[in-house]
Amino acid sequence: MKSVRYFFLALAATILFSCGPKEEPVIKVKEVKVVPPELTLVEGGRESLSAEVVPSDANYLYVEWMSSDESVATVNKNGTVLGVKEGKATITAVADGVSGTCAVSVVKNLTPVTGIKLSPTELTMGKGYTETITATVEPADAANKAVEWSSTDVNVATVADGQVTATGAGQCEIVAKTVDGGFEARCSVSVRDVPLEKMVFANGSEYAIIVERGSTYNLIITFTPANTSDRNIKWTSGDEQLATTEVVGDGQAVVTFSTENTGAVTITATAAASGISVSQRFFVKGDQDPVLAPEGTVFAGRKAHWRFNTEAYTNVKNVVWKSENRSYEGAEAYIAPESGGETTVNVTASIGGKNVSFSFTVPVEEWFVNETIPDANPRNTYPVFNKETTRAYFITRGKRRLYELDLEQGKLGWMFDMNDGKNDNGGDICVNPVTGDIYCSNQQHLFCVSPDGSKKWEILVPKGTTPTSIAGCGPGMSNDCTVVFIPVVDNRFIAVDAASGDILDSFDIPTNHLQFAVYGNNDIVIHTTVAKGEGAIRFVNFSGGKFGEVKAIDSPSADPTDITSPAVSRDQKTAWFSCAGGMMVVVDLATKSLKGSARLAGGYLQGPALTADGNLMFFAAQTKAEVIMINPATITDNPSPMVPYSNGNGNWLNFTTVAVDTQNNVYFFIKDDCFAKSVFYRLTASDGRWTPVPVASIDKQNDDPQGFFNFGGGYLIGGGGTNTVNRVLVRCIDAQRAAGWSGPGGDVCATKNANLVYGE
Fold first, then answer.
1. Structural domain span for residue 354
2. DSSP annotation of 24
3. How many domains in the chain?
């Protein structure tokens, strides 16, 4: 077999040790050029000099200015020169010890001021606003253009360097007077009251505020602009049998509600001058709440039962519920709020012919499950689901135990102990979609566990299943779910009767690093490491209880890794394998040949997940974590990542991947913000762009970058931890989104039992 050798470790080491901080070179100033080099000023005249530092990228670019004779000419820090009296002086610019000069000659003031003009000469302003007046001193070459500003009435307007501020209604003049000659020019200023543009209730709501009978509510107006003079407000009640108002201050009124009547009422505030108004709806409730909230805890993403109290409020018709961007019609609604924390559920109803809206703020728990796993070790298997996606299962590494996660009750279920003292690695898992049995292993045994957590059978595997295997390379099911396939450490690939545990057949194959998928009529494609630097793809068929090898070909990758599964196309004609070094290998299952390969990223390439529209989603992690989308028809090396994260080691969650739902939303779970928190992200496509949206996060979940993740039946499952803490987290994503599951072994990303997934 042809040998293909790669040197990724050496390359990675070179990159790693070359990324340290580099010392910046020192670039000295060589020359300072002052422009212009010569200057003539009249007494009292000003001109600006500029200094060019050469080279322009020198480390020190700050310029200091100085005059050789400040009785003749002065210079400020910006290079502006003032002629003081007749004479000569040298202006020097210094940068980093290097200097440049300008020779200055100051001559007698020969051009006196002859007049002054203002622009504009009339201003109409609103109180509190500012305007600028420009003064032009004549002639243009006058030596002294200094101007003094004043206002004839500072209670109407003030002025500073030509900037006028209106202080009160009325009229005044702004006066500009030249220092040389005392010439004056005036601008007439009229200041009017500021009109009202808008007003809102500072403590109001766009929805009806529910109040008790006999209670009071203080409404406070916010005016825009705040300095408006249109503040004479008229308060009215839409039904004085339900509510009355009393003015208590500028823009404030107390609303007092009926002690006997119930129903909807609108309070309106109207500005007398402009007629601008603002309204607030209230609902005076009786002894019973108009809305019956769900009993128990409301979880983000999980449907909860809401009901309008039509028994107590018989005049309520045509109820429309609104939660975030969704609407639900009818007296009852099952709403799944997407946000955690304080979430608002809004209800609109027609009451007695009036449109009234209610706003309820209910506490929503972020996590449907947030439990500590008794076994402290973060390297757990990918969660896998039963066919109904009511249960999920995963294996812990520390004590090698199989856990059930009850997705209906939202808690950990039973635990099956596989501990036999050989627990440093291993831990494969898959679920039989027909019987619900779970097949799992440690490094000594292969177990069959029934859905109730009891053991059905076990097989002693003296050398264990494949080392460092998680869920990626086994076990796998035959297409009729009667046979379990699993690679074992002693370089064998075995077939086991799913019901009895009897070994049916085996064949020799290197199993150090290996991935496989079942497709067609119990055809199996296997990508394995043959020897150091050599990889192979083998095509095997299982029929009549026996293996039969069909074909073997070389692979461009010698390391398919053992922490991920391949994806199989829906027509079962193509398989995609993820390999170390960021390489993807594409296999033509119809012709049993190599279809191509591409290097997508550095480090481990995990996934892929196959979207409903046929694209491939990968998760890459090494020096950074990124999600990559590939169109199988146009595969190229080094595609642009959709979501890069470069603020930490890419191995944050060692066995995370991507998952998709039936609406082509993409999910992943990573350590974010330099390990400060773990975050579930959803990628949603809009106008050809994918935007990462944080679905949920938990601060300081764990310190160690190890974890696990999967999506199924509307549940995001993630977790991980350290050698002392281990947790499992479940976030609901509205069960309408997908009926099955994604990720390793799922129905959107086809692996192992593709016929069962996509066939009839």
1. 291-365
2. P
3. 5
pLDDT tens-place string over residues 30-76? 999 999 999 888 888 889 999 999 998 888 888 999 999 999 999 99
Work out whether strand 616-621 and strand 625-630 pair parallel, antiparallel, or are unpaired. Answer: antiparallel
Amino acid (one-letter) located at 457: W
Question: Is 11 a member of any domain?
Answer: no
> Is residue 444 within 8 Å of 462, Cβ to Cβ?
yes
- The DSSP letter of residue 641 is P
Domain assignment of residue 26, yes or no: no
Buried b (16+ CB within 10 A) or exposed e, 402-425: bbbbebeebebbeebebeeeebeb
For residues 351 and 262, give the distance between their C-alpha atoms in angstroms, rounded to a whole number. Answer: 11
Residue 674 token pair: 């330099």
Same domain, residue pair 375 and 351: no
Amino acid at the residue 309: N
pLDDT tens per residue across span 294-321:
888 889 888 889 888 888 888 777 888 8
- 643 and 740 within one domain: yes
Which residues of the chain are modeled with pLDDT < 70? 1-24, 340-343, 376-379, 420-427, 462-475, 562-563, 621-624, 643-656, 672-676, 688, 699-706, 722-723, 734-760
- Residue 175 sits in the same domain as residue 226: no
Q: Which of 159, 192, 225 finishes a domain? A: 192
Q: Identify whether the C-beta of residue 569 lies closer than 8 Å to the C-beta of residue 749.
A: no
CATH number at residue 253: 2.60.40.1080
Alpha carbon of 201 to those of 125, 231, 349: distances in Å?
28, 14, 22
The reply to whether 575 and 679 lie within a common domain is yes
- Nearest by Cα to 243 from 203, 291, 281, 278: 281
Q: Which helix (H) or strand (E) holds 56?
A: none
Where is 754: in which H helix or E strand? helix 754-758
Domain match, 66 and 215 both? no
